[in-house]
Amino acid sequence: MAQVRCPSCNSPLTQEESRSAANCPVCGKSLSDSAGSTGSGSAATAPGTSNAPSTSVRSASQKHWVVVAVVLLLVVGIAGMYAGGFLSPKQNPDEQAVANSDQNKNEENKNNDAGKSSPEKPADKSSDDSETNVPAASDKPADQPDEPGVQPVDPPAQPTVPPSEPTDEPTESIKLPAQPTDQPVNQPTGPFNESVEPTEPQTGPTDLATDKPKNTPEEEPAGIAIDAPDGEYNAESLNEGDFVRLHGKVKTLKLSSVNGRSALDASGLEAKEIQVESINAEATVVLNAPGGLVEIKSGINGQARVFINAAGGKVVFLNGCPITGNCEVTISAREVDFGAVLGSNKVKVVFSKGGKLRFTKMTGSSYIHYKRADPKDPPPTIEAGTLVESSECKEVDW
After folding, report:
1. What are the distances in angstroms from CA 142 to CA 86, 90, 93?
2. 48 pLDDT more than 80
3. Are residues 57 and 10 in contact, defined by beta-carbon separation less than 8 angstroms?
4. Is 18 in the same domain as 81?
5. Residue 387 CA to its chain's centroid (Å)
6. Do residues 340 and 361 touch, judged by C-beta distance below 8 A?
7. Residue 176 has pLDDT above 60, yes or no
8. 3-class SS at 255?
9. Kindly report the CA angle at 121 between 116 and 123, in degrees rounded to 5?
10. Neighbouring residues of 276: CB distance < 8 A, sequence distance ≥ 6
11. Does some domain include residue 191?
12. DSSP bridge pairs for 307
């Protein structure tokens, strides 16, 4: 059967289609140009001949495929942007608040997991309240889409500081020193009471001791009783922390050196004569020989505190032995014969009637202050030596 082609789209048509149809069933254009010209149509499609498609058909086909390709590219690009998170569906304020709440809870869970390795600290009440509050919705309008390419950044987690690890070593308790006792020192009667003033309480069994003696019971020792009105008693040397109390009567009391922070309380021992080798450092000594004689052989040194009651008697520093350092010496006697007083010593003398004072030299800021036990007594006789720097010797009513 001979074929006829459409003059517009070059589509093959049968003889019946070309006669019965006014328009081409493919392109819809009129076939009037080909009506009654079957021979020409058949001649155009005769075997052995090739009819190429027209330029208009080719351009329409190419446009069709270009449109298809562009649509496919747009579809693929949009799908990729959704998959990458660059485009997200719009959220209303309630949905966005729920999303923010879930994100905050995830961050809290991360922080809790990080702090499980260290002991948990007691949580503050404020933190408990903050956990129950729902985070507020973002101030960004709900209908405004997120900017493409911008990823939300989580706030940095707060670093957890591990507490100090407890140690199994027992802590050493701090022991406070014992409170001083307010126990009066037995003072002899007479003018000596005026010269010996109560001292500040010191640590130890009595106010005389500057520190608690070693190897002594908690209670104050009763002391050593001496009953030798016509005999003598020899006391051994006292060293750091030693304390001795003497009471009774004795004719002659001989003392070796008293050193360090030791103490000798002989205020309750009435002696007629007392011989002392030396008193050194921070020792405290109280002697009682009313109307008798007290002899110091090697001086008083350091920061010693010495109280001598020889009212009506005599106190002599043999061979001019000195008082040196920063000592405090209080003497009640009728006659006192010092050697040199060197340094920053504080010496006080209470004279009985007919008093007499003698010293060779005084230096530094040392002073000798004296007064009369009875203001009606005549002034004492003063044989002063050399006074150097700011030292002084004068009568003072203290």
Report:
1. 16, 7, 6
2. no
3. yes
4. no
5. 54
6. yes
7. no
8. strand
9. 110
10. 255, 258, 285, 287, 294, 295, 296, 297
11. no
12. 286, 330
Which one has a higher pLDDT value, 292 or 208? 292
CA 391 to chain CA mean position, Å: 49
Task: Let me know whether 283 and 361 are in one domain.
Answer: yes
The backbone torsions φ and ψ at residue 63, rounded to the nearest 5 degrees and listed phi first, read -60, -40
Q: Are residues 322 and 256 in the same domain?
A: yes
Q: Are 39 and 78 in contact (CB under 8 A)?
A: no
Looking at the domain assignment, is residue 216 inside a domain? yes
The predicted-structure confidence for 299-350, as pLDDT tens digits, reads as follows: 999 999 999 999 999 999 999 999 999 999 999 999 999 999 999 999 999 9
**pTM for the full predicted model:** 0.48
C-alpha span between 268 and 248 (Å, rounded):
6
Structural domain boundaries enclosing 74: 62-88
- Assign 173 to helix, strand or coil: coil
Cα-flanking dihedrals φ and ψ of residue 276, to 5°?
A: -120, 130
Say what the pLDDT of residue 11 is: 75
- Distance between CA atoms of 361 and 342, rounded to whole angstroms? 8
Residues 38 and 4 sit within 8 Å (Cβ to Cβ): yes
Q: How many structural domains comprise the chain?
A: 3
Residues forming a β-bridge with 13: 4
At 384, give phi and psi (nearest 5°): -85, 145
Is residue 114 one of the residues assigned to a domain? no
Rounded CA separation 271/290 (Å):
8
- Do residue 290 and residue 312 come from a single domain? yes
> CB of 296 within 8 A of CB of 274?
no
Is 324 found in the same domain as 383?
yes
